[in-house]
Amino acid sequence: MAGQRGTCTAAAHAAGAAAMVLEWGIVRKNLPTLTGYDINRMSMRAARHGAANTYPNILCGMVSLT
Fold it and tell me: Which Gene3D superfamilies is this protein grouped with (predicted)?
């Protein structure tokens, strides 16, 4: 099976990451007032622009889930 690329897999990874952050924040009571907006801001702050990579616009970047 060929590797998956693009927005199809990006959406699945983003949803999984958001679910993990929600679990950390709400379920484990680290940040009980966590909202979707908060998760968006966290992921935007965590995005890194690699010099070797090209992005479609200045708002894009890569977030490492490790």
Answer: Peptidase S8/S53 domain
pTM (two decimals): 0.71
Distance, in Å, from the CA atom of 22 to the CA atom of 29, rounded to the nearest integer, reads 10
Please give the residue range of the domain that contains residue 17. 1-66
Mean pLDDT along residues 12-38:
94
- The structure tokens listed for 29 are 């009571």
How far lies 49's CA from each of 12, 13, 36, 63, in Å? 21, 18, 23, 9
* Paired tokens of 50: 């690699």
Count of structural domains within the chain:
1
